[in-house]
Amino acid sequence: MKAIQTPSILLFLGKNSAKDGRFPVYLRVIYQRKSWQAIMKYPQREEPEMAGLAGKSIQLSKNDFDNATSIKPTGVNKIIAKIFSGFITKADEVIKNMKPFLFENFETLYFAKPKDKDDLFSSLEVAAENIRKEGRISTAVAYECTLRSLKEFTAKEKFPFESVTVKFLKDYESWMLTPKVIEWKTKSGKTKSRTKVNGRTTVGIYLRNVRTVFNLVKPVGVLYPFGKSKQGLYTIPKGKNTKKALTQADVAKIASYPAAKGTIEQMSRDYWLFSYLCNGINIKDMARLKFANIKGDKITLIRAKTAESVDEETTIDIMITKQIGRIIDLHGNKPGTSDQYIFPILTKDMTPEDEYRAIQQAVQTINKNMTNICSELKIARATTYTARHSFATVLKRSGASIEFISESLGHRNKQTTQNYLANFEDEEKKKWANMLLPETDI
After folding, report:
1. Which of 50, 320, 362, 424 has the most CB within a 10 Å radius?
2. 373-381: long-range contacts (C-beta < 8 A, 24 or more apart)?
3. In CATH terms, is domain 248-429 a member of 1.10.443.10?
4. Model confidence, pTM
């Protein structure tokens, strides 16, 4: 009778060393002549020597690794030895509970975060991981930022749901809205600083994430803190709608700006104009456009923001004008096959994380060049955010109905559209104010 083969577990140093002579520490599992391995990271530890190392990959010299794996480790390597022991013990426990053993299941179970339903921070972390696995990277980043901010405010690694009270939420809001000085050192060793100011919009995003997790977990025996302030509950603040939009004349100046052919400046200007002309679509929607989205004389798309969040998909139709066609001909990929992205921002082989980074880079590049262009033209700064508001506001000032603008933007209701529409200029307000009672010599 053959003995049942069990996976073997070991820790070892990788071959690629850092510049300081240290090597990454790997955990390897071997089973039926196949192996799996992963670089190990420092867990959260209370020892002062481990401060600031949580989440970073473990890199050791050969001498330190030998010391940590010896019978009697010395110095800080005693702590490393305990960490190593924890790695081996956890791997052994996962393997014992697996029937049959599968490498892909082992990896999932080994790196799964412990779920503590009583802990807000643990729940936020799990939510961020699940959202990231779904490919919704920007939303996952928002949850991760929420978690970092709350940890900074509380100076704790765990925070029970029962401590999320109305007072706590008000104190956190006040702390967030208080300007903070951030300092850092340059490569030359000089200390620089800047003042960071969080807006009500950021506070609203973070605390809506907290509320979402609260609603998902539904912690037993914990008072629900969110609701109307009149009822003694906490109302999540709404950001003041800073209505930024250019006039039609300013957009015309941008279109006529003499950007040098073939430059990043020209591409940035044209990408901004494309966003403006195409119903103010954001750069993510623009980057995801494929030639298959072109149906005759129009572009048809479903906004990425709403594709997974509404019961019924809303299709947006964009008529291809001469200006839109010119931008596609000038900057579009060639040949324009149906499965090819129109613009060279994304590629087919990108992961969701790669796609997120590429879109963020495109937005930064466009905004940087548009800032310079607007400065030269002596007009208000135009960003990718401005393009959408300008599209809606120019239509409004030109007499288009709210219903038409709402449909063009892909909104589900007119109130959302109202929030996008910018105020008329001060000159327009003065004109109508003077109409109320023209000045006379009375």
Report:
1. 362
2. 373/254, 373/257, 373/259, 373/265, 373/268, 373/269, 374/254, 376/257, 377/250, 377/253, 377/254, 377/257, 379/246, 379/250, 379/253, 379/254, 380/244, 380/246, 380/250
3. yes
4. 0.65
